[in-house]
Amino acid sequence: MHDNSPPPLDCSFLTRHRQLLAEDMALAFASSFSIATGKRTTCKIKPLSPILKLSTQKKFSCSATVTMDRTQASEYEIESKKHNLLSIIQDTQRGLVTTADQRSIIEEALVNLEGYSMGEPIDLAKLDGTWRLQYTSAPDVLVLFEAAARLPFFQVGQIFQKFECRDQSDGGVIRNVVRWSIPTLLEDQEGATLVVSAKFNVVSIRNIYLQFEEITVQNINISEDLQALIAPALLPRTFLSLQILQFIRTFKAQVPVTNPDPGRRSVGGLYYLSYLDRNMLLGRAVGGGGIFVFTKAQPLDL
């Protein structure tokens, strides 16, 4: 008794590839023969059998599922590594309080994430926006944290990097923003704003060169106690006292950054953006300037 059941489905992409190759060769031969003889040649190609069509559809469906599963797994791995990094740096006070072992663990966590962006060019549209500092080992930033820890009259609030490069192809503007305060005189944490502005150019796949231009002190918000001292609420406020308050609120000091060596361009530095996605930015100041961990923040108006 013969087995009349249909043969098992063949999900082999190679089978389909060979048939398509044979069809292409047949069409190419027919075309060349027609051109050479001037006679119209008809080349009949048998349609795919229902079983082969089904096997091809099944193959593509399997491939799409596998690709989707791998993508989801990769995204899960990345999010897991990001969460791990943020957990490790959580109690370091943005890098001020760390041990040698902690710094080694943090470095390993960074390297694990950086591998996912290796070889990819910088996406300026994704980079554009405001990023909040979560951790750094940069000496020029840690000195601010150390001063705030030692001096009772100085506070350091949030620190941001603001990139303006959405419609650019090879660079833009970066603003390093530091919120700081003097207790009793200014509002806590956000009494004033220090902004260091620089132009940047993309110089390689993931390196940008910063050329600093200006340092600005602005957005001074004096405390309620100081406001009451300058213009007491219970007394008629004089025109002079109101003018003083308005001057303080709108005060803005700008100092250009220049190179002391004439003929050379302004002070700058190389910045390696080692990892970037929609909500995390990792960077390294080239030349031993330290590492930086940022998370995406709400837009910042300056």
Automatic annotation (TrEMBL):
Keywords: Plastid, Transit peptide
Principal subcellular localisation of the protein: plastid
InterPro entries per record: PAP (IPR039633), PAP/fibrillin_dom (IPR006843)
Pfam family, one: PAP_fibrillin
Location(s) in or outside the cell: Plastid
Top-rank taxon, per record: Eukaryota
Domain spans labelled Plastid lipid-associated protein/fibrillin conserved: 81-294
Transmembrane segments: none
Family: Belongs to the PAP/fibrillin family.
PANTHER family in alphabetical order: PLASTID-LIPID-ASSOCIATED PROTEIN 4, CHLOROPLASTIC-RELATED (PTHR31906)
The protein's name: Plastid lipid-associated protein/fibrillin conserved domain-containing protein
